[in-house]
């Protein structure tokens, strides 16, 4: 009894109670909360719930998804940053929350480098570049030629000012040396409706939600931002193949898990391994495939590097395009 008490005191003094518990194999001893900073039913929410189920099997504890939508993902991300760093609160991280919002919310923002701790990347979702069927181009070469011949004639619908779609348009204009006008909408749904109706002529969206519109002939796909050609649309070239690696990288939407800064490394490693094992399950891989998502995991450090790289690329786009967001 005295030895166990002495061991506990030494452990707590040396590395903190939570880290000590993790080192003794006590973690997790209760359900883990996974905060999704967007509303239920969206791609981030659906992906989070699929991964949470896989992690539950690996951790032996429930992973409870909690939606905290608002301010483009800022409210939920703030909740994660302010939570106890004990491994029992995680957050779903996206390109928007990690590499767009920190650049646009000046006085009210969450710094991923100091307030959050990367746990694991989860998946990457390809983005398809599309045009309205009335647009006079059948492929990317014709698309590019038409835009260059008619600067300012065509428009692009985004989910809003400062959205990832807005940044992708700015990057497209700069990379392709074209002038496509930006039309912001209140969300991706209205933006897609505008593209289908011809209010805007150029659009891009995640493959999962775009494929039904493409197959129905309501929008025409001309290229995809993805690591490789899509199995469901093998005729579609990637932006990498077409000679635009920046658009290929920026257009891919990635998702991952983060924890509050200060979460013990031992706990983060345990969570990272649980994610990796979950993503190795063929059943989960198939579920992700229905979302157009490709499993894409690695070490916490690799995820931190991807966040930093995307943040740097987006900072350049925002500064060059002069994008600002009223808080």
TrEMBL record:
It comes from the Bacteria. Keywords: Signal. It comes from Achromobacter pulmonis. Belongs to the UPF0065 (bug) family. It holds the Pfam family TctC. Residues 1-23 form the signal peptide. PROSITE patterns: PROKAR_LIPOPROTEIN. This is ABC transporter substrate-binding protein. The keyword Signal applies.
